[in-house]
Design brief:
The protein has helices spanning 22-31, 33-39, 41-46, 97-111, 125-132, 146-154, 221-227, 260-277, 312-325, 337-343, 353-360, 395-405, 419-427, 434-439, 457-460, 462-465, 478-486; strands at residues 85-91, 116-122, 141-142, 203-215, 236-237, 248-249, 254-256, 292-293, 299-300, 331-332, 348-352, 370-373, 379-386, 410-412, 415-417, 468-469. With 488 residues, it is α/β, with parallel strands linked by helices. α1 (22-31) runs antiparallel to α17 (478-486) and α8 packs across α9.
Length: 488
């Protein structure tokens, strides 16, 4: 749901946000793809779609938009036009309401400051991207996925962070604050290092993989693992197994996420498989983008297509396969993927790992009939991040909020704040917080997140994990294809 627009006075003389739909945003970015791709969001700013204050705040280093000299930022002070309010944009169902209340209580107990947290909820990176660019919205903290951070960083739309104000940064797993082992690109997770060498521009919030979720009472798991992405081009499927339906209708009972990079990743992985099959002489199929030796000792070639392909022929092949899928899909939807499975209106969907765990509820006494795999053709992993936009004027409070997210045993008097444990056990996404992981305990029914390979394939299912690569920057030629694919 689009949050209500308000016009407020500030020290920047902010422009009233334009009214536009996500569809209009996609049309604009599709039509101006080449310009935006070369010049970044600065091109949109020049067209007055992205507002920049005429006079930067005093803490910005001259000539370096989005780069902060923290010696000029007041510490332990609430600042800006609404100093007692922290405005955040967050994904749906990513924290309980009690978390925001906890933060407000923490600030009152620790610093004697009364603050409130105001939240807008988005359902896709495209929606968030629209809000902070064409929509002109202002936030103190946002939570984009890693692949769009680099673009908004280069455009000066986010600030470098002051790690001295994020003491709980030391709780993080080093694997999630460095370039991952199977990717060698400056555009990936090291994008959090500011180009001027001043500091990180984001730190991890939670992470996960993208895969296939399905009704386990309709199709056996071994068959889902064997068929993988090919389900999305099928009208129906015959399990031919005891205690399963003779025929399962798939037409109109499948969904893909409303997320460009997730959908295109599936397209690239299937198109890559078809490309491998077309080679002469024939080559064994490999789902790995880098040479890999699996846990059984079998070596694999690193020839699978990545989720970041830019060669026009590969982009076209990816799009062609997705257009074969489209007639069989109910829609592209990031909020209805798991509820539709539980309700029985869907049979098989593209899904995020934590969402299916949240829907299945393995932590409860009666788990729902759904499960999740990473398709054998390959997929992606991703990381949602904590970011401070350059429209923030309450920098110290924003840092306190990010630090609070990764608290595992902070104390204020007799109160112990174990917020990261609260968050991961509520949303059932894997945490990048090593200190939190080490302190997790099983749920009352015995379910232990730390032992669930669907959540932690990096630790428990390396052969699945290495089939996933990491999307990075936004790619200009993807926008027109996404618009055409998701148009009715």
């Amino acid at each position: 749901m689009e949050p209500t627009e308000t016009t407020e006075s500030s020290d920047e003389g902010a422009l009233e946000p334009r009214s536009l739909t996500r569809r209009r945003f996609l049309k604009l970015t599709a039509g101006a793809g080449a310009i935006a791709g070369v010049l970044g969001l600065g091109a949109l700013s020049g067209l007055r779609f992205v507002y920049r204050p005429p006079v930067p705040p005093p803490w910005e280093i001259p000539g370096h938009p989005g780069v902060v000299d923290y010696t000029k930022v007041p510490e332990r002070q609430l600042t800006g036009p609404t100093p007692d309010k922290l405005k955040v944009a967050q994904w749906y169902d990513y924290w309980p309401g009690s978390f925001k209340t906890d933060f407000q209580n923490y600030m009152a107990l620790q610093y004697g400051l009364n603050v409130t947290v105001e939240q807008d909820t988005f359902t896709s990176n495209e929606e968030l991207f629209e809000w902070i660019t064409l929509g002109g919205k202002k936030y103190d903290v946002i939570f984009p996925t890693n692949h769009i951070v680099d673009n908004i960083k280069k455009s000066g739309l986010i600030y470098n962070l002051n790690l001295a104000w994020i003491e709980n940064f030391t709780n993080l797993w080093s694997d999630f604050i460095q370039v991952p082992h199977h990717i060698d690109s400056p555009d990936n997770l090291d994008q959090r290092q500011d180009p001027n060498g001043l500091n990180y521009v984001s730190i991890p919030y939670f992470w996960g993989t993208t895969g296939i979720a399905w009704r386990v009472d309709q199709i056996p798991k071994d068959q889902v693992e064997a068929v993988g992405l090919d389900f999305f081009t099928m009208d129906s499927y015959s399990p031919n197994a005891a205690n399963y339906p003779t025929t399962v209708t798939l037409d109109g009972k499948m969904r893909m996420l409303e997320d460009l990079r997730d959908v295109f990743t599936f397209g690239f992985k299937k198109a890559g498989q078809l490309w491998q099959a077309s080679q002469t002489p024939s080559i064994p199929f490999s789902p790995y983008v880098m040479p890999y030796t699996d846990t059984a000792g079998k070596p694999w070639a690193g020839i699978q297509w990545t989720s970041n392909e830019t060669d026009p022929a590969r982009v076209n092949a990816m799009g062609a396969w997705l257009f074969q899928c489209k007639p069989h899909l109910f829609d592209f939807n990031s909020t209805g993927d798991t509820p539709s499975l539980i309700a029985g209106t869907a049979v098989l969907n593209q899904a995020w790992s934590g969402d299916i765990a949240y829907a299945q509820r393995p932590d409860q006494s009666n788990p729902q009939p759904a499960d999740y795999i990473i398709p054998y053709q390959g997929s992606r992993w991703w990381q949602d991040t904590c970011v401070i936009p350059s429209q923030c004027r309450n920098l110290w409070l924003a840092h306190r909020f990010i630090n609070f997210i990764h608290s595992v045993d902070m104390t204020t008097g007799n109160t112990v704040w174990q917020e990261n444990q609260l968050l991961t056990k509520w949303n059932l996404y894997p945490t990048p917080n090593k200190a939190c992981f080490d302190l997790l305990t099983p749920f009352p029914n015995g379910y232990d997140m730390r032992a669930d390979a669907r959540l932690y394939p990096n630790l428990l299912a390396p052969d699945d994990w290495y089939r996933c690569d990491l999307p990075h920057v936004l790619v200009k030629q993807y926008n027109p294809l996404w618009f055409n694919l998701t148009s009715v």
